[in-house]
């Protein structure tokens, strides 16, 4: 941990990591930027659903955004263990701000078709493929090891607070000013995180013993080999992949649920997403408060199973308030599962290999969702949204309960 991250005032409970200045700075900047991202995401998803009328395009856009992470995130993790992490983060944020501004300009020029949307999604994902593992490595380098679970949970809290706030802003803007301002809000929101990163005091990336002189590809292979040799890290990474493949398409296809099934329009869509985010906030707070306690492996698997039940029921309910209540619970359980999973990975990752281990985890976590969404998009047309996503939820529940009942090593973490 760097000197610039020193304590300022003792804080109790789930706010413990806010003792450290650099963590507060990074959290605040990321929070503002995440609000902008969700504001844009809601507007863009609704634009695709209403203007293009093809559910497959929702999954295709998600895949275009995440494909670069599948291709390049491992490289990003190796780079994060070798290069100035502040420069990586700053470059990525400036590029993402430029792409958001491009969306706004193209929309106002009436030139924003699916081709431009997919290209900008791809370029944004390419920038994130380098910054995502770097951000995770930075997050845990600016707090002491004992505070890592709390820092991870608080980071999840800012993401999910923004998931509740951003859609609400998008709903207001869509109703009063249209789609373009949502893109402009996102572009401006990057200023906050850029200023935060510029003010961080970061330690240089640590070097693993015997890794000096390795090429980038050798360094990358060293990280992947470590994950494969560790049964716990490998199991957690595989669970991250399966969980995101089966759980995250629910969020991708909320516009279809609101528009075609519930018939509640853009306002209903933003309410569904905000309900999910509101539950996630509660889950993140409780996870941060819980901290590093025994039995987190069992909790992780149980909350994955609970999510599958609530989300599956929500798909087959036709009354919007009840769907919102079920999604609130599902959001709380899913963020508890993934915050716990992320904390366990962070704790098991050696300092010198942290960027590479987290890039492997991030590849699974970020890659599973768009792959699952793409498969779901191809099946929703012929089979229907409820059947496809209901099957996804059922399969996730079977996996989680199976691991839990068999006493798998993940349950013992």
In short:
The chain is an all-alpha fold. It has helices at residues 21-52, 55-80, 85-108, 114-141, 148-176, 180-198, 216-229, 231-247, 249-252, 254-261, 265-290, 296-315, 320-348, 354-383, 385-405.
State Rg: 20 Å
Largest sheet: none
Tell me the number of helical segments per DSSP (H or I, 4 or more residues long): 15
| Structural class determined from secondary elements | mainly alpha
How are the elements arranged and paired?
Elements: H1 21-52, H2 55-80, H3 85-108, H4 114-141, H5 148-176, H6 180-198, H7 216-229, H8 231-247, H9 249-252, H10 254-261, H11 265-290, H12 296-315, H13 320-348, H14 354-383, H15 385-405
Helix pairs in contact: 1-5, 1-6, 2-4, 2-7, 2-14, 3-4, 3-6, 4-14, 5-11, 5-13, 7-14, 8-13, 8-14, 8-15, 10-11, 11-13, 12-13, 12-15, 14-15
Can you give a write-up of this model?
The protein is mostly helical and 413 residues long. The chain has one domain (11-412): Up-down Bundle (Growth Hormone, Chain: A), CATH 1.20.1250. The chain is built from 15 helices and no strands. α2 crosses α7 (216-229), α8 (231-247) packs antiparallel against α15 (385-405) and α10 runs antiparallel to α11. The radius of gyration is 20 Å and the shape is globular.
